[in-house]
Amino acid sequence: MDALAAEALQRGPVAGLSIAVVEHGKAVLEKGYGYADQEAAVPATPETSYPIASVSKHFTAGLILRLADQGKLGLDDPLKRFFPSARPRIGDLTIRHLLDHTSGLTRGGPAPRAAALSVLTRGGTARAQGADWDYSNYNYSLLGLVIEQASGRDYSRFVHDEIVVPLGLTGTGYCEDGTAVPGRGLDYQSGVKSVSPTPYWTEQKFFAAGGLCSTVLDLVRWEKALEEGRVISPPMLQAMRTPARLPSGLQADYGYGTRLGITGSHRKLGHTGGGQSNKAVLARYPDDDVTVAVLLNTERSQARVTATDLEERIERMFFGLSETPTEDVAAPAGDLHRFAGQYGDGVRLVRVAEEGGALTLHPGSRHRPDSPLVPQGGDLFLDEDDPSVQLRFQIRDGEALGYGRYHNGWFVALGVRIGRF
Fold first, then answer.
1. Is 144 in the same domain as 250?
2. Given CA atoms 412, 275, 54, 92 in this order, what sign does their dihedral have?
3. CB atoms within 10 A of CB 317
4. What is the CATH number of the domain that holds 201?
5. Is 43 within 8 Å of 32 (Cβ atoms)?
6. β-strands 42-43, 298-299: how paired?
7. Distance of CA 34 to the CA centre of its chain
8. Which CA distances in Å does 153 have to 119, 144, 149, 302, 418?
9. Closest by alpha carbon to 136, among 115, 157, 151?
10. pLDDT in tens, 361-409
11. Distance between CA atoms of residues 16 and 48, nearest Å
């Protein structure tokens, strides 16, 4: 592990990172590497507090479900219950649609509090509510506004009162407005050979969708508190971890503020987060009673090192799996035609073709060449040119309805089949 972290710091380059691995409630590893503040030579530790970006959604969802347990809201309540002046298209959205990203809101990028307020009175949805799955920060910024209305407290205060204090999460808090959090380090932008400080994570961009800071120790404590029923009731926890199901029959491996995924044959759940690259991940392996948290303080576009890459490498090492899942499992003869077709994958039009007894992925991007899909058994295929990407096809009546796209084992997108060729 020390060698893996040291290599990541150099290859990034990354100023600092922290890792926690806990099995059966006991620490396997809790350690920091590099610097929390490179200029002042402050080392990174397990107590270093980092911006956790979209891992904040895991907390926001837990707080919404806590309010539901308290009877202060219902998951099928429309937004107009809390915001009577909201435009009909927005006011009719339910809490549940926001929690599992089936609201029809497709706006990407930052979603600060002011922008979420604007959506209430001026916004609309690109798709019908409940019909499709599309990840948007606006879903969770709107949930932050709901928390404020239902609780009568600011989002930051509610986080502090309901989870930070009772659970002892001393390095956790709302931080994107510049509020000091114990153990908070600096944030860095990575260049080719060096890193430089950046104010990106001290500017208000994501509100309840990504505005929290935390430590790897606190993230593990949070997941343990969820498991033990100290945050929400068991039925709410089960709902939090249940995939979203669409009227079309497709399933999105995303619950309420919870990404779902798999490493090898090991189920995992939690969340990932990052701005220009993935810098935070909290992974719970429920069948193995293992929890992993990885936090970085450095980002760059097309980053060489990401938190999810490290997390998956850690778990492959921990579970004794090969470094990358490249085994080619023979696909059933004559069976590949059912996967061939065109798929809407977010804003991209992706084509899967059967060519010479194998499947080829045409990713719909001028910057990505076509690549072979390597069978991994059943309806799972790996992108040979980028083994961190996998497609899991969903079949009905012998034909693919669509696929889930996974990155480093985490569900990230849903591809919907729109035609054959």
1. yes
2. negative
3. 13
4. 3.40.710.10
5. yes
6. unpaired
7. 25
8. 21, 11, 7, 39, 45
9. 115
10. 998 766 678 999 999 988 999 999 999 999 999 999 989 999 999 999 9
11. 10
- CA-based nearest residue to 378, from 388, 390, 392: 392
pLDDT at res. 32: 98
Of 119, 205, 217, 202, nearest in space to 168 by CA? 217
Based on the domain organization, do 317 and 340 belong to the same domain? no
**What does pTM read for this prediction?**
0.96
Residue 331 covered by a domain: no
Residue whose entry in the numeric block shows the structure tokens 């998956």: 312
CB 181 within 8 A of CB 201: no
Domain for residue 287, yes or no?
Answer: yes
Look at residue 331 and tell me whether its pLDDT is greater than 70. Answer: no
Q: How far does CA 119 lie from the centroid of its chain? A: 23
Residues 69-97 have pLDDT tens digits of 999 999 999 999 999 999 999 999 999 99
- Residues 383/352, Cβ–Cβ less than 8 Å: no
- Is-contact 256 57, C-beta < 8 A? no
Q: Which domain holds residue 345?
A: 336-419
